[in-house]
Specification:
The chain has about 130 residues and is mainly β. It has no helices and nine strands. The chain is elongated and about 50 Å long.
Length: about 130
Amino acid sequence: MPKYTHANSANEGTFTPFLITDKEVVLTSVIAMHVSPGNRIILQMEVGWEKPMNWDMGEIEIVLRKDAPDGPVVYWTLESCFVSAHTIVEQVEIGENPVHVYYLSVLSSEHRAIIVGPYLLKCTVME
């Protein structure tokens, strides 16, 4: 049974699309509160992106970090696309402390991704 939920997002069209570089950039963050030891924290991530026109294929790294923008990585994936992609993933953590902060970040080592939206980070703390 859910005991706490927090989400941050930006819909497509609500911001100017931007090029992702080799420097990790935080898209958004969420706070998991009211966590008891052993509670499951379900983290849902969503990133809408496309390749730049000058590349045959796009590539992006999606990173989920815990407790600080440069904190430990709890999830990482490398995604690629020929035109555009809408990546949706879920990660489950086991709670340790009453409060955790999670950061959704992206990077692209050869500047082969443009964030177009939507993007979302949602956490649900389960009993």
